[in-house]
Amino acid sequence: MQSTIIRTQAYVDGQWVSAASGKTLAVTNPATGEHLADVPDMSAEEAAAAVEAADRAFDSWKKTTAKSRAQLLRRWYELIMDNQEALAQLMTAEQGKPLAESRGEVAYGASFAEWFGEEAKRTYGEQIPSPSPTSRLVTIRQPVGVVAAITPWNFPVAMITRKVAPALAAGCTVVLKPAEDTPLCALALMALAEEAGFPAGVINMVTTADPIAVGDTLTSHPLVRKVSFTGSTPVGKHILHQAADTVKKVSLELGGNAPFIVFDDADLDAAVKGVLISKYRNAGQTCVCTNRVYVQRSVMEQFVAKFSELVAALKVGPGDQEGVEIGPLINRKAIERVEQVVSHAVGEGAQLLLGGARSEVGELFYQPTLLGGIDESMAIANQELFGPISTLFVFDDEEEVIERANATPFGLAAYFYSRDIGRCWRVAEGLEYGMVGINECILSNEVAPFGGVKESGTGREGSRHGIEDYLEIKYLCMGGI
Question: Known NCBIfam families for this protein (predicted)?
């Protein structure tokens, strides 16, 4: 694997470094098992040193002008886009998603560097009318301080820029811990950030095979003032506990159990295509993937016929092959979990309509699977699937399906298809989710707020709101005027 952006060392205080112990973490291609590279397996002590470097850099970085930060972020955006194909090839190699999806993610990830560079110049304060003629009341916004960003493997470019770009735009410094399955994309982004001209210590990156010890250091260190995490709900709850002792700001983008509702007045062809994209993108390994497909009884038979035909036609294979739509799962643990989930569902009475086994393509590939006859008493209805599995539920009326869709501790994304404008408003307002797609299956972009409610997290990423958690409001009361 040859690329000018590949790095195999971590980055701390403006230096590319190996682990002090000499230990390394192997990175492999999930589609082929090929060994791609070794990166440093760094310790909790080295993570603490990265925090200290970020804290030293913060003193000068916070004093830079918004315009200068915007210019650096713009340059980072341009470099990411100049290297779009190399980053996409790298992503497909270490994460497995089809190359077309990887190219799209690189552009999506770059958009956050562009957007938040522009937002850096819009972190406005305000003047408040004073109750006294001799005083003036003003607020200003200042960067919160050192940020710890912990990112997942399923979007190894976009989840980094969505956190790091607003932090840098606000004037914060960052210590990033990427997922141990996909550190190469993170290190490539770091190489491009260095080329863009960010000063030493402003962005630091620690790779490790011990995410618990390093993560605990980042989330409890007294010099870290903000933690941003994307991952599972159990880990997110642990991070909240860790951050509590030092009362850090915390943003969490956690698990989901997304419903996709098809009403009898929907454009059925559009709905079928929508759920196909929402469910099987990245082999079902996204937090906003459809988990539960609710179809109104009168159109269920027609929906299943159309949907089954499209699912059966999905091409499974290594992501760098032409026409592939379903790549591998990320690792052996992931595919074994998917096997167990499907086996248990069938044991509870689910109807196996398609798939239901590993693909002959390779060890970590799973057949696109369709399960019918699901109800909420089954375990599969109450967990995040993170695999290429669709589960079909039947419903009769609007009020019923809203209640069933909301009967989960999660509240990240939901989708529904209907052509009735009144129903669109009622259902959108009734669903207890942070994001709702109405006749639309792709929600994410840099200008809209991304995040969930209930146990799916706190805070928002992207949009003008995405920079707010990296800023503190300071109130200035000026007397004697």
Answer: SSADH
- 339 by Cβ neighbours in 10 Å (0-12 / 13-18 / 19+) ranks as middle
Q: How many CB atoms lie within 10 A of CB 107?
A: 15
| Residues 378 and 271 grouped into a single domain | yes
Question: Residue type for 270, please?
Answer: A
Active site residue 253: yes
Which domain CATH number covers 33?
A: 3.40.605.10
Going residue by residue through the chain, which has 481 residues, state the pLDDT in tens, using 9 for 90 and above. Answer: 557 899 999 999 999 999 999 999 999 999 999 999 999 999 999 999 999 999 999 999 999 999 999 999 999 999 999 999 999 999 999 999 999 999 999 999 999 999 999 999 999 999 999 999 999 999 999 999 999 999 999 999 999 999 999 999 999 999 999 999 999 999 999 999 999 999 999 999 999 999 999 999 999 999 999 999 999 999 999 999 999 999 999 999 999 999 999 999 999 999 999 999 999 999 999 999 999 999 999 999 999 999 999 999 999 999 999 999 999 999 999 999 999 999 999 999 999 999 999 999 999 999 999 999 999 999 999 999 999 999 999 999 999 999 999 999 999 999 999 999 999 999 999 999 999 999 999 999 999 999 999 999 999 999 999 999 999 999 999 999 9
Residue 27's contacts (CB-CB under 8 Å, 6 or more residues apart) are 35, 36, 37, 38, 39, 94, 181, 182, 183, 184
* pTM of this structure: 0.96
Rounded to the nearest 5°, which phi and psi values hold at 340? Answer: -65, -40
Which amino acid, one-letter code, is at 126? E
**Whether residue 467 sits in one domain with residue 405:** no
In eight-state DSSP terms, residue 202 is: T
Going by C-alpha positions, the residue among 241, 217, 105, 89 that lies closest to residue 161 is 105
| Residues β-bridged to residue 58 | none
Is 4 part of any domain? no
Structure tokens at 58: 């913060």
Give a yes or no: residue 73 inside a domain: yes
Catalytic residue among 52, 94, 119, 253: 253
Cβ distance 467 to 166 under 8 Å? yes
Residues 32 and 109 reside in one and the same domain: yes
Domain hosting 334: range is 258-445
Task: Please tell me the distance from the alpha carbon of residue 408 to that of residue 25, in angstroms, as a whole number.
Answer: 37
Per the CB < 8 A criterion, the answer to whether 198 and 77 are in contact is: no
CATH of the domain at 274: 3.40.309.10
Residue 292 lies in a domain: yes
Report the first-to-last Cα separation within the chain, whole angstroms: 67
Q: Which two tokens mark 436?
A: 């709702």
